[in-house]
Specification:
Layout lengths: L1 E6 L11 H14 L4 E4 L19 H11 L4 E4 L2 E2 L5 H14 L5 E5 L4 H6 L7 H18 L7 E2 L4 E2 L15 E5 L6 H8 L2 E3 L6 H15 L7 E8 L5 H14 L3 E6 L4 H15 L3
Parallel strand pairs: 1-2, 1-11, 2-3, 4-5, 5-8, 8-9, 9-10, 10-11
Antiparallel strand pairs: 6-7
Length: about 290
């Protein structure tokens, strides 16, 4: 099992002037501790359950560019990109750029988006659920084409690209790591089976059923179910102990998850890294 650090809160001591140095220390400490992935959210405002909208929030891809510069080994991606926040051709170019500048460590996490309030607040188009899923599927096709030898046009229902030229190409071959977030049984998990290297599903009581549905989609698509990473997010509180975290990780492993992204609710972010570092040797044996 692998551990990632999911950074979803930037409201740290010292305010905005301390965000950059704190984030750098956090990233370097996580990498040194043996954590293999760093992820951020794709939100424009802070989300409920973490803090009020007015709390600090950084734009995701700018943040990943910074993290690429202060780390050497960890995989970097958004958990997950809101498909309607960026045009697909530009998104593929951004991920490719991150991959080249990080030495082949970038991934694309993608989802259909859900936070209408922040989108409307900042003037980002936010179409119906049906249209967002249509755009999700088209975006996957566009990214795949841009990461291939085909630089011809693309014409879909929502997107039309005259030439899908992408130079330089990504260092990750045949393309960057691709994750699809969400657990919708008819659409999202079908897209995972058809396109993705990984899914991201909440570890709720129905998670085992969702993975069974993914297996069924894989059978229909002729895809090896075991070749797809099953990832989830695990939150830890300031009071969470090492033994409690290990127990929770055993639980999600038994469900079938192979990667856990840990989100710490501790206002001292380095305390979360210390907690993860204490369990890395144990889970390396799983």
């Amino acid at each position: 099992m692998e551990l990632g650090l999911h950074i979803a809160n930037f409201t740290w001591n010292g305010g905005a002037p301390e965000i950059s140095p704190t984030l750098g220390r956090l990233a370097r400490s996580a990498e040194a501790a043996g954590i293999t992935r760093l992820t951020v959210m794709d939100h424009l405002w802070q989300i409920g359950g973490i803090g009020p909208p007015e709390d600090e929030m950084l734009e995701a891809y700018t943040t990943l560019g910074y993290l690429a510069g202060v780390t050497e080994r960890v995989r970097l991606h958004v958990l997950v990109t809101a498909v309607v926040y960026r045009e697909p051709g530009m998104l593929a170019k951004m991920v490719t750029t991150l991959d080249v500048l990080s030495g082949g460590r970038a991934g694309l996490g993608l989802g259909a988006a859900w936070n209408e309030e922040e989108a409307r607040g900042l003037g980002v188009p936010f179409p119906s659920t049906r249209e967002r899923f249509e755009r999700l599927e088209e975006t996957l096709l566009i990214c795949e084409q841009m990461w291939s030898d085909d630089d011809g046009p693309y014409e879909g229902t929502h997107y039309k690209l005259g030439r899908t030229l992408n130079s330089p190409q990504s260092l990750s071959r045949p393309r960057p790591y691709l994750m699809i977030g969400g657990s919708g049984e008819r659409k999202t998990l079908r897209l995972v089976a058809r396109h993705a290297d990984a899914c991201n599903i909440f570890a709720r009581p129905e998670a085992a059923h969702k993975l069974d549905v993914l297996r069924e989609h894989c059978e229909r698509e002729g895809r090896d179910y075991d070749a797809i990473e099953k990832t989830t997010i695990v939150s830890v509180e300031p009071s969470t102990t090492r033994d409690q975290l290990l127990e929770r990780l055993r639980e999600v492993r038994e469900i079938g998850f192979t990667v856990a992204y840990i989100f710490g609710k501790n206002p001292e972010p380095l305390a979360t890294v210390d907690l993860l570092a204490s369990v890395v040797p144990d889970i390396a044996e799983w």
